[in-house]
Amino acid sequence: MASPDDLNFQEFEEAADLLSSNPGASTLSISNPSAAATSSGDVRVDLSDDEDNTQESSELLGGEKQTGGFWTFEYYQSFFNVDTVQVLDRIKGSVMPLPGRNFVKHHIRNNPDLYGPFWICVTLVFSVAISGDLYTFLIKMGDPGYHYRPQFNRVSIAAITVFLYAWLVPLGVWGFLTWRQSVDRQISGYTFLETVCVYGYSLFIYIPASILWTIPVYWLEWLLIAIAMVISGSVLVMTFWPAVRDDTKLTAFATMAVIVSLHALLAVGFKLYFFHTPTKTGSSHFGKTTPAADLTTTKVG
C-alpha cells in the first residue's frame, strides 16, 4: 500500500539541474495558478464573453438600416429592399384578395416598398398605350380611308394619368386618415409609404385586363373592366375599411365611396379614351357602311 509520502510532489533531477544552472529562472506553482501568472508576467485573457458581445454587436449593426438624409442614395435604397419572392407574394395578394385579409398586415407590414408599385405603374402605362393603339387599328382595319399612324402621345397621357393617380390619391387618403386619427385617437392609420404601396399593387390587375381589352367585343370589354374594378377595389376596401370603421358611419362610408369611385373612374377613363369604340351606323367593328352614292347606277342611253 502506498504511504502518504509517496503522494507528495517531488522535484525531478532534470528540473533540479536546470535550476542550478539558472537560479534566476521563474517557476510555476500548480497550487496557485493566479500567482504563477503574475510572477511570470503572462496575462491570460478570456475572450469568450468578448467574442459573444462582438458577434451580437455586429449582428445588431448588420440589421440596422443605415440611412442618411433624403438627398442621399442610401435613403431611397431602403424603399427598394425587397426580393422577387416578396414582390410575387404581394402581386398574388393583390389579384386574389381574401375576405378579412388586410393587405398591409399580411403582405407589406414592416417592409413597404416602392419597387413593385413603380414597375407596375410603368408596365401599366405601356400596356394601356400600346393595347389602345392596337385596339384602334383593329377597329379601323376595314376602313380603306384609314392609315395607321403610331400615337406616341398616348404614352405621355397614360404616364401622367397613372402616376398622378398612384401618388396624389394615396397622398390624399393618407392625409385624411392622419387628420382623422388626430381628431379621434381610436382610429388607426397607415404611413404614406404603406398607402402608396397598397395603391401601386392594386393596379396590377389592370395590366392583363388592358391586354384583353384589345378584343373588340363590346360586352366583353365592359365585363373585363367590371372584373378588374371588383378585384382591385376589394384590395382597397379590405385595407382601408379597418382604418375608418371606428369613425362615424357617415365619414366611414363616405371615405370608402370616394376611394372606390376614384378607382372605378380610372378604369372607365382607360376604356373611354384609349379603347374608344367609334359609332358606325349599320356596321360592326370590322365592317363598313356602304355610302349611298355607291348604290346609284349610271343609266346607259
Which tags fit this structure?
mainly alpha; 301 residues; globular; 61% helix
Main structural class: mainly alpha
Instruction: Write the element-wise H/E pattern from the N-terminal end onward.
Output: HHHHHHHHHHHH
Largest sheet, if any?
A: none
Supply Rg. Answer: 38 Å
Total number of helices: 12
CA-CA gap between termini: 156 Å
Which percent range fits the helix content? 55-70%
Oligomer kind? single chain
User: What's the mean pLDDT score?
Assistant: 75
Shape annotation: globular
Strand content: under 5%
Poorly predicted segments = 33-66, 281-301
**Using DSSP, what is the number of strands?**
0
Give a verbal description of the structure.
Helix 7 (115-139) crosses helix 8, helix 7 (115-139) runs parallel beside helix 10 and helix 11 (218-244) packs antiparallel against helix 12. This protein is mostly helical and 301 residues long. 61% of the residues lie in helices and 0% in strands. The chain has 12 helices and no strands. The longest helix has 31 residues, at 153-183.
